[in-house]
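sry for the spam today, last one i promise. struct tokens for design, 393 residues
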């Protein structure tokens, strides 16, 4: 694949991608992951690549993230293409030949693939700009992993005047060359919760002289696992997971404080409210039973992601020209692209990135998104941009 000039039809356009350059870009980005709102080197690298290809970079006064614009040869609609750019605090153990050079950080969600694909599409769209009617904004968005990047980008004015937006996420459950896009819900809404217990600490030999929180916390953790199974409809997909536990620091002291954190995932507003309210009720009831107090913090991180029905159908109808269209397998992962979708018409796609038996999932230290998925992702961006301009025009 290295150095090969590949060409295919995408939505009536001839798309050629210099894979040698893109593989070099992907390797560099994979080796230099950065955390949310601190993607300074990644932003600088992306900015320089865009400028090298004659693409206009815009200043939106954000510390990280890159925003660029391609003007067509004639006036027309205004659309945007988005890729997320942040990594995760994960120590890499993957089979990828170019491991992260930033110890303890990794592109464990494949955002290096997304950046590379949007760059590849930008290069191609820039070459064909005279044949385009309209404006294409390129949004390399920071801080998707913490669910705050899309909002920051919108507050900076990045989607002013934009009539439609398209984005992707690589999905290792699909093979390279496969795409899932359509009108069904694609990614779950996401909430973060934290529970802090306040009790009376005491000597471990005299537990009756205190109201230690450890037993109450254990009861709470087990009880919360019935919230979905005994409250949510069995015909709805929902998840409540406890992911972090804190309590005590000395072997012979019953602590006065303890707590745990976790996440809830859902596809409807009804289930979001149900999970939140049942969690609070259970914590309050168990706290009272143990004679302690508790605080519950609930933060809505992202909304369920559903693409615009008309535009998603339009794009899906043309996927067969350059990839294999697949049925959407909804993901319980969250995605703040949903924030854009609540403001303007949006199209989102899963791009197959592995599909091998026994592959590792997103956020795993062993996650591996295959290079072979990059051409398909580039073609999706390029084809979708042209189709949206034509349709909206």
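last one done:
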């Amino acid at each position: 694949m290295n150095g090969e000039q590949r060409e295919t039809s995408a939505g009536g356009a001839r798309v050629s991608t210099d894979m040698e350059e893109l593989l070099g870009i992907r390797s560099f980005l994979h080796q230099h992951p950065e955390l949310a709102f601190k993607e300074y080197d990644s932003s600088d690298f992306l900015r320089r690549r865009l400028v090298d290809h004659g693409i206009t970079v815009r200043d939106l006064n954000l510390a990280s993230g890159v925003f660029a614009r391609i003007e067509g040869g004639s006036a027309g609609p205004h659309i945007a293409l988005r890729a997320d750019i942040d990594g995760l605090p994960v120590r890499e153990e993957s089979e990828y030949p170019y491991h992260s050079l930033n110890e303890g950080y990794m592109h464990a969600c494949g955002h290096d693939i997304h950046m590379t694909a949007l760059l590849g599409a930008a290069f191609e769209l820039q070459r064909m700009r005279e044949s385009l009617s309209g404006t294409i904004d390129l949004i390399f968005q920071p801080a998707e992993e913490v669910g705050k990047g899309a909002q920051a980008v919108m507050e900076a004015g990045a989607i002013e005047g934009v009539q439609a937006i398209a984005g992707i996420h690589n999905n290792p459950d699909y093979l390279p060359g496969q795409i899932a896009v359509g009108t069904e819900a694609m990614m779950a809404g996401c909430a973060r919760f934290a529970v802090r217990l306040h009790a009376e600490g005491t000597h471990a030999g005299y537990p009756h002289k205190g109201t230690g929180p450890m037993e109450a916390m254990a009861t709470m953790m087990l009880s919360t696992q019935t919230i979905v199974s005994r409250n949510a409809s069995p015909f709805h997909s929902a998840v409540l997971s406890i992911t972090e536990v804190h309590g005590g620091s000395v072997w012979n002291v019953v602590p006065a404080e303890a707590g745990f954190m976790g996440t809830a995932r859902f596809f409807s507003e009804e289930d979001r409210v149900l999970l939140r309210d049942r969690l609070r009720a259970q914590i309050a009831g168990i706290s009272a039973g143990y004679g302690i107090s508790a605080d519950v913090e609930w933060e809505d991180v992202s909304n369920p992601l559903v693409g615009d029905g008309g535009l998603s159908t339009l794009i899906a109808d043309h996927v067969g020209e350059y990839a294999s269209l697949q049925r959407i397998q909804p993901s319980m992962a969250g995605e703040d692209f949903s924030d854009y979708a609540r403001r303007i018409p949006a199209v989102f796609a899963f791009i197959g990135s592995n599909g091998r038996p026994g592959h590792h999932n997103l956020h795993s230290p062993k996650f591996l998104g295959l290079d072979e998925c990059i051409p398909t992702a580039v073609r999706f961006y390029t084809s979708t941009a042209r189709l949206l301009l034509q349709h909206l025009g």
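The CA atoms of residues 29 and 75 lie 34 Å apart. ok im logging off now
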